[in-house]
Amino acid sequence: MSGFDSNPFADPANDNPFHDSSVIQVTNSNIEPVEQFNPFPAHPTDSLAAHTTPASTTPYQPAVLQPSTEPSPQATAAAAQANLLRQQEELERKAAELERREQELHSRGPGGKENNWPPLPKSFPIKPCFYQDFSEEIPLEYQRVCKMMYYLWM
Questions:
Q1: What digits encode the pLDDT tens for the residues 129-149?
Q2: How many domains are contained in the chain?
């Protein structure tokens, strides 16, 4: 509690942590340099400086680059060209398919096919809403399932 009685505005000579005797002793002592420190001695009882080996006999060595295994610019250009050709062929196939579908739509004429679903009697005042053809619009492997579901729904 004596710290509370002291003058806070007095000279802080005693409060400087660097004037501590243990800090001064460590900073003035002769400690081995970091280069000679070996954190992994052969045996824990061996001295640290006795088994250190220098990293190299010469202080500086030139950097040696290993040859890279990257493909040549000609090979990468050829691969990119092949990729572009493959993409172009794929786009042309898709464009041909779209053109074929468009021709089918135009061949149906202005009225197209007559709407047939839901099936309603001819005398009924409301006409069917859209055209449905299982053999044309549904793949062969799913036609049986779709027809069964349709008949169950009906």
A1: 888 888 878 889 999 998 898
A2: 1
Q: What are phi and psi of 130, to 5 degrees?
A: -150, 170
Q: Provide the sign of the torsion angle of the four alpha carbons 18, 22, 24, 28, taken in this order.
A: negative
First vs last C-alpha separation in the chain:
97
Q: How far apart are CA 83 and CA 126, in angstroms?
A: 55
What is d(CA 144, CA 142) in angstroms, rounded to the nearest whole number?
A: 6
Q: Where do runs of H (alpha helix) occur along 43-124?
A: 73-107
Containing domain of residue 93, as a range? 85-153
User: Which residues have CB under 8 Å from 105's CB, separation 6+?
Assistant: 112
pLDDT at res. 54: 56
Instruction: Answer whether residue 113 is part of any domain.
Output: yes
